[in-house]
Amino acid sequence: MWLWDSNDQHSDQRTLNRVLLCPIECPLAGVRHRLRMFWALENKNWGSIGSDHRDNVNYLRLWFGQALVWENAVGVGLTMRRDLHLKGFTLIELLVVIAIVAVFVGLLLPATQSIRESARQLSCQDKLRQIALATLQFETAHQRFPAGTLGFPGSLRIPEDFGTAEWREPGADYFWKNTQHTSSLAMLLPFLELQSHSDLLPLHAFNQLQTGVWPGDLPTVKAVGSQNVPIFFCPSDDLDSSPPSAIFVAAQPIWSSIYVPYVGDALIFSHLDSDGTMNYAPTNYLGCLGAHSGANYPFPSLSGYDGVMSCRSKVRTADVLDGQSNTVMFGEGIGYIYNRQRIAACSWLFSSVGRGRGGVPWGEVYDDKHGEYFLGDSVGANVHGFGSKHSSTVNFVRADGSVNVIGRDIALNVFYALCGRRDGKSTLIPE
Fold first, then answer.
1. Which of 32, 60, 83 is at the close of a domain?
2. pLDDT tens-digit map of 84-98
Protein backbone atom coordinates (compact mmCIF):
# COMPACT_ATOMS: atom_id res chain seq x y z
CA MET A 1 0.00 0.00 0.00
CA TRP A 2 1.43 3.40 -0.93
CA LEU A 3 0.43 7.04 -1.32
CA TRP A 4 0.74 8.92 -4.53
CA ASP A 5 0.95 12.65 -3.98
CA SER A 6 -0.63 15.02 -6.50
CA ASN A 7 2.71 16.85 -6.81
CA ASP A 8 4.25 13.78 -8.44
CA GLN A 9 5.70 14.58 -11.84
CA HIS A 10 3.70 11.82 -13.52
CA SER A 11 0.29 13.20 -12.55
CA ASP A 12 -1.64 14.85 -15.33
CA GLN A 13 -3.71 18.02 -15.43
CA ARG A 14 -6.35 16.62 -13.09
CA THR A 15 -5.93 17.84 -9.53
CA LEU A 16 -5.44 15.14 -6.92
CA ASN A 17 -3.97 15.53 -3.49
CA ARG A 18 -3.13 11.91 -2.84
CA VAL A 19 -4.16 8.46 -3.98
CA LEU A 20 -4.41 5.34 -1.82
CA LEU A 21 -3.55 2.03 -3.47
CA CYS A 22 -4.75 -1.21 -1.86
CA PRO A 23 -3.39 -4.26 -3.71
CA ILE A 24 -5.34 -7.53 -3.22
CA GLU A 25 -4.26 -10.82 -4.72
CA CYS A 26 -7.06 -13.07 -6.08
CA PRO A 27 -6.97 -16.23 -8.27
CA LEU A 28 -9.25 -16.18 -11.29
CA ALA A 29 -9.48 -18.68 -14.18
CA GLY A 30 -6.09 -20.14 -13.31
CA VAL A 31 -4.20 -16.81 -13.84
CA ARG A 32 -3.10 -14.63 -10.94
CA HIS A 33 -4.83 -11.27 -11.17
CA ARG A 34 -4.43 -8.24 -9.01
CA LEU A 35 -7.29 -6.11 -7.81
CA ARG A 36 -6.19 -2.57 -6.97
CA MET A 37 -8.67 -0.04 -5.72
CA PHE A 38 -7.69 3.58 -6.02
CA TRP A 39 -9.44 5.98 -3.74
CA ALA A 40 -9.05 9.69 -4.34
CA LEU A 41 -9.57 10.80 -0.82
CA GLU A 42 -10.57 14.36 -1.54
CA ASN A 43 -12.22 14.04 -4.97
CA LYS A 44 -14.22 10.96 -3.83
CA ASN A 45 -13.68 9.24 -7.18
CA TRP A 46 -12.45 5.88 -8.35
CA GLY A 47 -9.65 5.71 -10.88
CA SER A 48 -7.28 3.43 -12.69
CA ILE A 49 -3.70 3.75 -13.68
CA GLY A 50 -2.20 2.53 -16.94
CA SER A 51 0.59 3.18 -19.43
CA ASP A 52 0.38 5.49 -22.37
CA HIS A 53 2.65 4.07 -25.06
CA ARG A 54 2.59 7.24 -27.16
CA ASP A 55 4.43 9.46 -24.74
CA ASN A 56 5.30 6.93 -22.05
CA VAL A 57 3.74 9.22 -19.47
CA ASN A 58 1.65 7.71 -16.72
CA TYR A 59 -1.60 9.39 -16.00
CA LEU A 60 -4.64 8.86 -13.89
CA ARG A 61 -8.11 8.46 -15.38
CA LEU A 62 -11.02 8.97 -13.02
CA TRP A 63 -14.47 7.41 -12.96
CA PHE A 64 -17.04 7.54 -10.25
CA GLY A 65 -18.11 4.28 -8.56
CA GLN A 66 -15.90 1.87 -10.54
CA ALA A 67 -14.02 -1.16 -9.20
CA LEU A 68 -10.91 -1.95 -11.23
CA VAL A 69 -9.38 -5.33 -12.03
CA TRP A 70 -5.81 -5.57 -13.23
CA GLU A 71 -5.36 -8.01 -16.05
CA ASN A 72 -2.21 -9.65 -17.35
CA ALA A 73 -0.07 -8.61 -14.42
CA VAL A 74 3.09 -9.65 -16.34
CA GLY A 75 4.05 -7.66 -19.46
CA VAL A 76 4.98 -4.27 -20.77
CA GLY A 77 2.33 -1.65 -20.39
CA LEU A 78 -0.32 -2.63 -17.90
CA THR A 79 -3.90 -2.39 -19.07
CA MET A 80 -6.90 -2.30 -16.83
CA ARG A 81 -10.55 -3.28 -17.30
CA ARG A 82 -13.37 -1.33 -15.72
CA ASP A 83 -15.74 -3.83 -14.06
CA LEU A 84 -18.19 -3.82 -11.20
CA HIS A 85 -17.70 -7.04 -9.23
CA LEU A 86 -20.51 -8.08 -6.86
CA LYS A 87 -19.68 -10.92 -4.48
CA GLY A 88 -22.06 -13.97 -4.91
CA PHE A 89 -22.43 -17.63 -3.88
CA THR A 90 -20.32 -20.30 -5.43
CA LEU A 91 -21.98 -23.50 -6.61
CA ILE A 92 -20.57 -25.45 -3.67
CA GLU A 93 -21.90 -22.89 -1.19
CA LEU A 94 -25.33 -23.04 -2.82
CA LEU A 95 -25.40 -26.83 -2.67
CA VAL A 96 -24.40 -26.78 1.00
CA VAL A 97 -27.24 -24.35 1.81
CA ILE A 98 -29.74 -26.51 -0.09
CA ALA A 99 -28.53 -29.60 1.77
CA ILE A 100 -28.92 -27.86 5.14
CA VAL A 101 -32.44 -26.70 4.26
CA ALA A 102 -33.36 -30.23 3.13
CA VAL A 103 -32.14 -31.66 6.44
CA PHE A 104 -34.26 -29.18 8.40
CA VAL A 105 -37.33 -29.93 6.26
CA GLY A 106 -36.76 -33.65 6.79
CA LEU A 107 -36.66 -33.09 10.53
CA LEU A 108 -39.65 -30.77 10.71
CA LEU A 109 -42.01 -32.54 8.28
CA PRO A 110 -42.66 -35.63 10.46
CA ALA A 111 -43.21 -33.38 13.46
CA THR A 112 -45.71 -31.30 11.47
CA GLN A 113 -47.55 -34.42 10.31
CA SER A 114 -47.64 -35.73 13.87
CA ILE A 115 -49.14 -32.47 15.10
CA ARG A 116 -51.78 -32.57 12.38
CA GLU A 117 -52.68 -36.18 13.19
CA SER A 118 -52.96 -35.29 16.88
CA ALA A 119 -55.36 -32.50 15.97
CA ARG A 120 -57.41 -34.88 13.80
CA GLN A 121 -57.56 -37.45 16.59
CA LEU A 122 -58.77 -34.81 19.04
CA SER A 123 -61.46 -33.80 16.55
CA CYS A 124 -62.48 -37.46 16.25
CA GLN A 125 -62.75 -37.75 20.01
CA ASP A 126 -64.84 -34.60 20.13
CA LYS A 127 -67.31 -36.08 17.63
CA LEU A 128 -67.55 -39.27 19.65
CA ARG A 129 -68.12 -37.20 22.76
CA GLN A 130 -71.09 -35.51 21.09
CA ILE A 131 -72.49 -38.91 20.14
CA ALA A 132 -71.97 -40.07 23.74
CA LEU A 133 -73.88 -37.07 25.13
CA ALA A 134 -76.70 -37.68 22.66
CA THR A 135 -76.86 -41.33 23.77
CA LEU A 136 -77.09 -40.37 27.43
CA GLN A 137 -79.87 -37.92 26.59
CA PHE A 138 -81.67 -40.72 24.71
CA GLU A 139 -81.28 -42.96 27.77
CA THR A 140 -82.73 -40.25 30.00
CA ALA A 141 -85.69 -39.74 27.67
CA HIS A 142 -86.48 -43.44 27.02
CA GLN A 143 -85.04 -45.12 30.15
CA ARG A 144 -82.88 -47.37 27.96
CA PHE A 145 -80.01 -47.18 25.50
CA PRO A 146 -80.81 -47.30 21.79
CA ALA A 147 -80.60 -50.68 20.10
CA GLY A 148 -77.62 -51.25 17.83
CA THR A 149 -79.84 -52.35 14.95
CA LEU A 150 -83.48 -53.33 14.39
CA GLY A 151 -82.94 -56.73 12.81
CA PHE A 152 -84.92 -59.92 13.37
CA PRO A 153 -85.38 -60.72 17.08
CA GLY A 154 -84.10 -63.84 18.76
CA SER A 155 -81.04 -65.97 18.30
CA LEU A 156 -81.54 -67.18 14.74
CA ARG A 157 -79.80 -70.29 13.49
CA ILE A 158 -78.57 -71.27 10.06
CA PRO A 159 -79.60 -73.65 8.60
CA GLU A 160 -82.05 -74.68 11.35
CA ASP A 161 -84.23 -71.53 11.22
CA PHE A 162 -83.54 -70.38 7.69
CA GLY A 163 -81.01 -70.72 4.95
CA THR A 164 -78.83 -68.11 3.36
CA ALA A 165 -80.91 -68.33 0.19
CA GLU A 166 -84.02 -67.24 2.11
CA TRP A 167 -82.15 -64.18 3.37
CA ARG A 168 -82.02 -62.93 -0.21
CA GLU A 169 -85.31 -64.35 -1.48
CA PRO A 170 -88.28 -61.94 -1.61
CA GLY A 171 -91.33 -63.50 -0.05
CA ALA A 172 -89.40 -65.66 2.41
CA ASP A 173 -90.05 -65.14 6.11
CA TYR A 174 -86.49 -64.06 6.76
CA PHE A 175 -85.97 -62.03 3.62
CA TRP A 176 -83.67 -59.23 4.75
CA LYS A 177 -86.10 -56.48 3.75
CA ASN A 178 -88.75 -57.79 6.16
CA THR A 179 -87.25 -55.83 9.07
CA GLN A 180 -86.07 -52.24 9.49
CA HIS A 181 -82.33 -52.57 10.25
CA THR A 182 -82.43 -48.98 11.59
CA SER A 183 -79.19 -48.09 13.37
CA SER A 184 -78.55 -46.50 16.75
CA LEU A 185 -77.08 -43.45 15.01
CA ALA A 186 -80.39 -42.88 13.22
CA MET A 187 -82.21 -43.04 16.57
CA LEU A 188 -79.90 -40.35 17.94
CA LEU A 189 -80.61 -37.80 15.19
CA PRO A 190 -83.01 -35.66 17.30
CA PHE A 191 -80.36 -35.46 20.05
CA LEU A 192 -77.65 -34.39 17.61
CA GLU A 193 -79.59 -31.34 16.38
CA LEU A 194 -80.59 -33.26 13.26
CA GLN A 195 -84.33 -33.34 13.85
CA SER A 196 -84.95 -32.37 10.22
CA HIS A 197 -83.29 -35.61 9.11
CA SER A 198 -85.30 -37.66 11.58
CA ASP A 199 -88.59 -36.10 10.48
CA LEU A 200 -88.13 -37.46 6.96
CA LEU A 201 -87.94 -41.05 8.22
CA PRO A 202 -91.18 -43.05 8.65
CA LEU A 203 -92.31 -43.83 12.18
CA HIS A 204 -92.14 -47.59 11.70
CA ALA A 205 -88.39 -47.23 11.07
CA PHE A 206 -88.00 -46.65 14.84
CA ASN A 207 -90.49 -49.27 16.05
CA GLN A 208 -88.51 -51.50 18.33
CA LEU A 209 -91.47 -53.58 19.45
CA GLN A 210 -92.12 -55.30 16.14
CA THR A 211 -90.48 -55.82 12.79
CA GLY A 212 -91.48 -53.75 9.79
CA VAL A 213 -90.61 -53.33 6.15
CA TRP A 214 -87.14 -52.02 5.42
CA PRO A 215 -87.74 -48.29 4.72
CA GLY A 216 -84.72 -47.84 2.47
CA ASP A 217 -86.76 -48.03 -0.74
CA LEU A 218 -88.74 -44.89 0.11
CA PRO A 219 -87.59 -41.76 -1.77
CA THR A 220 -87.45 -39.61 1.36
CA VAL A 221 -85.35 -42.21 3.16
CA LYS A 222 -83.00 -42.46 0.19
CA ALA A 223 -82.64 -38.68 0.23
CA VAL A 224 -81.76 -38.63 3.92
CA GLY A 225 -79.55 -41.70 3.91
CA SER A 226 -77.46 -40.48 0.98
CA GLN A 227 -76.39 -37.34 2.82
CA ASN A 228 -73.00 -37.23 4.49
CA VAL A 229 -73.41 -36.29 8.15
CA PRO A 230 -70.10 -34.65 9.22
CA ILE A 231 -70.35 -35.77 12.83
CA PHE A 232 -70.33 -39.43 11.69
CA PHE A 233 -66.90 -39.23 10.02
CA CYS A 234 -63.41 -39.43 11.49
CA PRO A 235 -61.12 -36.61 10.21
CA SER A 236 -58.21 -39.05 9.86
CA ASP A 237 -60.13 -41.08 7.29
CA ASP A 238 -61.23 -40.07 3.79
CA LEU A 239 -64.41 -42.16 3.95
CA ASP A 240 -66.61 -39.10 3.42
CA SER A 241 -64.85 -38.05 0.21
CA SER A 242 -63.91 -41.50 -1.13
CA PRO A 243 -66.63 -43.99 -0.15
CA PRO A 244 -66.36 -47.60 -1.31
CA SER A 245 -68.56 -49.04 -4.00
CA ALA A 246 -70.47 -51.29 -1.56
CA ILE A 247 -72.43 -50.03 1.46
CA PHE A 248 -73.82 -52.48 4.03
CA VAL A 249 -77.44 -51.74 4.93
CA ALA A 250 -78.34 -54.90 6.88
CA ALA A 251 -76.54 -57.01 9.47
CA GLN A 252 -78.26 -59.88 11.25
CA PRO A 253 -76.64 -61.74 14.18
CA ILE A 254 -76.91 -65.49 13.68
CA TRP A 255 -75.59 -68.75 15.07
CA SER A 256 -74.41 -71.33 12.60
CA SER A 257 -72.98 -74.82 12.76
CA ILE A 258 -71.42 -74.23 9.35
CA TYR A 259 -68.78 -71.78 10.54
CA VAL A 260 -66.99 -74.02 13.03
CA PRO A 261 -64.02 -71.67 13.71
CA TYR A 262 -66.42 -68.96 14.82
CA VAL A 263 -67.91 -71.05 17.66
CA GLY A 264 -71.39 -70.52 16.27
CA ASP A 265 -71.22 -66.73 16.21
CA ALA A 266 -71.66 -64.95 12.88
CA LEU A 267 -73.32 -62.09 11.02
CA ILE A 268 -75.21 -62.30 7.78
CA PHE A 269 -75.10 -59.16 5.64
CA SER A 270 -76.75 -57.37 2.78
CA HIS A 271 -75.10 -54.59 0.88
CA LEU A 272 -76.03 -52.25 -1.93
CA ASP A 273 -73.69 -51.18 -4.68
CA SER A 274 -73.34 -47.49 -5.48
CA ASP A 275 -75.13 -47.55 -8.80
CA GLY A 276 -76.54 -44.02 -8.67
CA THR A 277 -79.84 -45.06 -7.05
CA MET A 278 -78.65 -46.54 -3.74
CA ASN A 279 -75.89 -44.16 -2.67
CA TYR A 280 -76.26 -44.51 1.08
CA ALA A 281 -73.63 -42.54 2.98
CA PRO A 282 -71.19 -44.46 5.22
CA THR A 283 -69.96 -43.80 8.74
CA ASN A 284 -66.83 -44.27 10.86
CA TYR A 285 -68.70 -44.86 14.14
CA LEU A 286 -70.34 -48.13 15.18
CA GLY A 287 -72.50 -49.18 18.10
CA CYS A 288 -71.03 -52.09 20.06
CA LEU A 289 -72.86 -55.43 19.70
CA GLY A 290 -70.52 -56.92 22.28
CA ALA A 291 -67.44 -59.09 22.04
CA HIS A 292 -69.41 -61.28 19.61
CA SER A 293 -72.38 -60.69 17.31
CA GLY A 294 -75.04 -61.34 19.93
CA ALA A 295 -76.38 -64.67 18.70
CA ASN A 296 -74.94 -67.08 21.29
CA TYR A 297 -77.17 -70.13 21.00
CA PRO A 298 -76.30 -72.81 22.14
CA PHE A 299 -73.46 -71.24 24.13
CA PRO A 300 -75.00 -69.48 27.15
CA SER A 301 -71.50 -68.95 28.53
CA LEU A 302 -71.06 -66.27 25.89
CA SER A 303 -74.15 -64.34 26.98
CA GLY A 304 -72.09 -62.24 29.37
CA TYR A 305 -70.24 -60.78 26.40
CA ASP A 306 -73.40 -59.18 25.00
CA GLY A 307 -72.95 -55.48 24.37
CA VAL A 308 -74.93 -52.38 25.25
CA MET A 309 -76.21 -52.07 21.67
CA SER A 310 -77.03 -55.55 20.43
CA CYS A 311 -79.84 -56.37 18.01
CA ARG A 312 -83.19 -54.96 19.28
CA SER A 313 -81.70 -54.64 22.77
CA LYS A 314 -83.40 -52.63 25.52
CA VAL A 315 -80.47 -52.24 27.85
CA ARG A 316 -80.92 -49.97 30.86
CA THR A 317 -78.22 -48.43 32.96
CA ALA A 318 -78.82 -51.04 35.66
CA ASP A 319 -78.24 -53.82 33.10
CA VAL A 320 -74.61 -52.81 32.61
CA LEU A 321 -73.39 -55.04 35.45
CA ASP A 322 -69.68 -54.54 34.77
CA GLY A 323 -70.06 -50.81 35.29
CA GLN A 324 -70.63 -48.12 32.71
CA SER A 325 -67.03 -46.95 32.85
CA ASN A 326 -65.89 -50.51 32.05
CA THR A 327 -68.14 -51.12 29.04
CA VAL A 328 -67.78 -49.96 25.44
CA MET A 329 -70.78 -48.29 23.84
CA PHE A 330 -69.42 -46.92 20.52
CA GLY A 331 -66.16 -47.28 18.65
CA GLU A 332 -64.45 -46.36 15.43
CA GLY A 333 -64.77 -48.46 12.28
CA ILE A 334 -63.23 -48.09 8.82
CA GLY A 335 -65.16 -50.68 6.83
CA TYR A 336 -63.94 -53.80 5.10
CA ILE A 337 -60.32 -53.35 4.01
CA TYR A 338 -58.41 -56.11 2.31
CA ASN A 339 -54.79 -55.70 1.25
CA ARG A 340 -54.97 -51.93 1.80
CA GLN A 341 -58.05 -51.54 -0.41
CA ARG A 342 -61.39 -50.55 1.06
CA ILE A 343 -64.16 -52.69 -0.39
CA ALA A 344 -67.19 -51.85 1.75
CA ALA A 345 -68.39 -49.80 4.71
CA CYS A 346 -71.46 -49.51 6.94
CA SER A 347 -74.28 -47.07 6.30
CA TRP A 348 -74.91 -44.62 9.13
CA LEU A 349 -78.65 -45.09 8.68
CA PHE A 350 -78.80 -48.90 8.72
CA SER A 351 -76.96 -51.52 10.82
CA SER A 352 -73.92 -49.48 11.79
CA VAL A 353 -72.75 -51.97 14.42
CA GLY A 354 -69.42 -53.55 15.36
CA ARG A 355 -68.26 -56.49 17.46
CA GLY A 356 -65.16 -56.92 19.56
CA ARG A 357 -63.63 -59.82 17.71
CA GLY A 358 -64.04 -58.12 14.34
CA GLY A 359 -63.56 -60.65 11.56
CA VAL A 360 -61.20 -63.02 13.37
CA PRO A 361 -62.22 -66.33 14.99
CA TRP A 362 -63.34 -66.18 18.59
CA GLY A 363 -60.39 -66.15 20.95
CA GLU A 364 -57.81 -65.29 18.29
CA VAL A 365 -56.17 -61.98 17.48
CA TYR A 366 -55.44 -62.60 13.81
CA ASP A 367 -57.26 -64.14 10.86
CA ASP A 368 -54.92 -65.84 8.40
CA LYS A 369 -57.60 -66.09 5.73
CA HIS A 370 -58.39 -62.39 5.53
CA GLY A 371 -55.15 -60.99 6.91
CA GLU A 372 -56.74 -58.81 9.57
CA TYR A 373 -56.52 -58.19 13.30
CA PHE A 374 -59.42 -57.79 15.72
CA LEU A 375 -58.69 -54.04 15.68
CA GLY A 376 -58.38 -53.06 12.03
CA ASP A 377 -56.07 -50.59 10.36
CA SER A 378 -55.36 -49.32 6.85
CA VAL A 379 -53.90 -52.72 5.87
CA GLY A 380 -56.84 -54.93 6.88
CA ALA A 381 -60.14 -54.45 8.69
CA ASN A 382 -63.57 -56.09 9.01
CA VAL A 383 -66.68 -54.18 8.01
CA HIS A 384 -68.30 -54.96 11.38
CA GLY A 385 -65.14 -54.80 13.42
CA PHE A 386 -63.57 -51.83 15.14
CA GLY A 387 -60.55 -50.05 13.72
CA SER A 388 -59.19 -46.68 12.67
CA LYS A 389 -56.79 -44.84 10.40
CA HIS A 390 -54.93 -43.49 13.44
CA SER A 391 -51.35 -44.69 13.70
CA SER A 392 -51.61 -47.02 16.70
CA THR A 393 -54.88 -46.39 18.55
CA VAL A 394 -58.66 -46.57 18.19
CA ASN A 395 -61.12 -44.22 19.90
CA PHE A 396 -64.03 -45.63 21.93
CA VAL A 397 -66.97 -44.33 23.94
CA ARG A 398 -67.85 -46.04 27.19
CA ALA A 399 -71.34 -46.32 28.62
CA ASP A 400 -70.72 -43.50 31.09
CA GLY A 401 -70.12 -41.09 28.19
CA SER A 402 -66.33 -40.92 28.50
CA VAL A 403 -64.12 -41.13 25.41
CA ASN A 404 -61.01 -43.30 25.67
CA VAL A 405 -58.14 -44.33 23.46
CA ILE A 406 -57.27 -48.03 23.17
CA GLY A 407 -54.01 -49.18 21.66
CA ARG A 408 -53.88 -52.01 19.14
CA ASP A 409 -51.60 -53.91 21.48
CA ILE A 410 -54.36 -54.41 24.07
CA ALA A 411 -54.75 -58.01 25.23
CA LEU A 412 -57.62 -59.81 23.52
CA ASN A 413 -59.27 -61.04 26.74
CA VAL A 414 -59.16 -57.51 28.15
CA PHE A 415 -60.81 -56.10 25.05
CA TYR A 416 -63.49 -58.82 25.08
CA ALA A 417 -64.26 -57.95 28.70
CA LEU A 418 -64.45 -54.31 27.76
CA CYS A 419 -67.02 -55.02 25.02
CA GLY A 420 -69.20 -57.22 27.25
CA ARG A 421 -71.56 -55.61 29.73
CA ARG A 422 -72.01 -58.53 32.17
CA ASP A 423 -69.05 -60.84 31.83
CA GLY A 424 -67.87 -60.13 35.39
CA LYS A 425 -64.31 -59.34 34.32
CA SER A 426 -64.21 -55.60 34.85
CA THR A 427 -61.12 -55.96 37.04
CA LEU A 428 -59.14 -56.75 33.90
CA ILE A 429 -59.80 -53.34 32.44
CA PRO A 430 -56.79 -51.01 32.82
CA GLU A 431 -57.25 -47.40 33.76
1. 83
2. 455 677 888 888 889
